[in-house]
Design brief:
The chain is mostly beta strands. The longest helix is centred in the first third of the chain and has 6 residues, at 9-14. Helices cover 3% and strands 33% of the residues. A hairpin with a 2-residue loop joins strand 12 and strand 13 (209-214). The strands form 3 sheets. Strands 1-9-8-7-6-5 form a 6-stranded antiparallel β-sheet.
């Protein structure tokens, strides 16, 4: 049987109860990792005003940055191997038990959740626009395959889901309590809610799981097992 983060107690109790998912049932399944070019591509919406360009994760967006500098900036021209942003701040969400954040382009949304025990700490990230080469859809996946990845119990897998995280990273949500702190960016798009983004180089931590936003995508790792995933527009990798 495939491991199922969306039907687990962690996500049903902590995520659905907070209204963070668009309502449709879902399941999640493991997949074979695929290497590819770096980059998460454009935002899942049309951005306005100030434009932030370049980098593999790149896109255009309206950005106002809260807190100290240090999360890094994207290079001006996209490149196959984007320049990584310098290491920025780490926001610790362990005491809050939940954190939601997007990438600066708005193309990736992630939710970190504290489980009943440390073994059930988890993170799921959705990538709204991607061009992955996927393994065959599992027979027991009855929903969309695959728009992201999750990490739970130290193991990473691709998602099979009929819901979406879009909007979970909007200002005013329970998971975006950190929106006015160091490492946060508020990004505006037309046709969708604003996004509280994790600035390039910054990290979000909950228990043993840490996710880092970078110019080449989103990287989430469980320090206890070393398991994790790397997501961008053009590639994914399960570790």
């Amino acid at each position: 049987m495939m491991r199922d983060v969306l039907r687990g107690k962690t996500w049903v109790a902590a995520v659905l109860a907070l209204g963070l998912l668009l309502p449709v049932a879902g399941c999640s399944g493991a997949g074979t990792s695929t290497a590819g070019a770096n980059g998460a591509g454009g935002a899942a919406g049309t951005a306005s005003s100030t434009r932030v360009t370049g980098s593999g994760e790149a896109g255009g967006s309206t950005v106002s940055t809260s807190g100290a500098a240090g999360a890094g900036a994207a290079p001006s021209d996209p490149a196959p191997s984007p320049t990584l942003a310098p290491r920025g701040p780490t926001i610790d969400a362990t005491a809050k038990g939940i954190a939601a954040f997007g990438s600066p382009t708005g193309n990736i949304t992630c939710v970190l959740v504290k489980g009943e025990t440390a073994a059930f700490q988890s993170v799921r990230c959705d990538v709204f626009n991607h061009s992955w080469a996927l393994p065959p859809k599992p027979a027991d996946c009855q929903f969309d395959w695959s728009h992201g990845a999750y990490l739970e119990g130290g193991q990473a897998a691709l998602t099979c889901a009929g819901d979406a995280l879009i909007g979970a990273d909007s200002p005013g949500q329970d998971g975006t309590w950190w929106a006015d702190g160091v490492g946060a960016q508020r990004v505006s798009f037309s046709g969708r809610p604003d996004v509280v983004a994790l600035a390039y180089g910054a990290s979000m931590k909950l228990g043993t799981i840490t996710c880092t936003s970078q110019t080449d995508g989103m990287h989430c790792t469980d320090a206890k097992t070393g398991g994790g995933f790397d997501l961008s527009r053009t590639a994914y990798r399960l570790r």
